[in-house]
Amino acid sequence: MAPITFPQIARMIRYVPRHVRIVWLLRTNQTTGFQSCTSMTQKTGLFEPVPNGGLLVYYQNRGNGDVINGGSGLKAFPPGFKMISGSPVRRARKFTPGQGSQGELAERAIEWECLRYTTSSTGYNSVNSLTGFPTTDCEAGLNARIHMPACWDGVNVDSSDHVSHTAYLSDLDNGSCPPTHPVPLMKILYEVTWDVHSMASRWDPRKNLWPFVWCKFVIKHRQGV
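Above: the chain's sequence. Below: its structure in token form.
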């Protein structure tokens, strides 16, 4: 398999957004807490969309396989290749952040950052927070990031769980591929910043729980033929 080339990258940049399926909506619920989005919408109709700044997609040359890091070069996504990151059924962290197993990397691949640089308050994120969501207003936005796997087993373009044929770099955003998935790929990062501050007047962090929830949080990438 030949290293990825700039024309291939250009094709990917034009192609990928048509197949990025983001069933991901942040909504507020002021009365009844964290029930499912579907049942709550049918029952009360109180969920409201939170404004966002749009989706950013980064195509990153990362890992020991990249030429600039001394490797033989990143490989192109093969025709029909599929991969996912994140789990819609995950409700708690199972691994200690930084432990480095593929399970821990998969958890850390889904990140949020409570941005507060417009104030004197210090921002914080999902890695150093003990809660699943922030507990304060995020004056500069809630920044959500999804890292896609950047390593491939070199054989299967998909798998029954859409996960096991891929793996994450050892440091998530850089590092090496595991021996089981030796083929290095272009790393893709999705990022959205949600304007939760626009609703700050409608809740009090001193009295209320974080009023925002995810709805159907799934990211899928498919490379076309």
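The CA atoms of residues 5 and 64 lie 17 Å apart.
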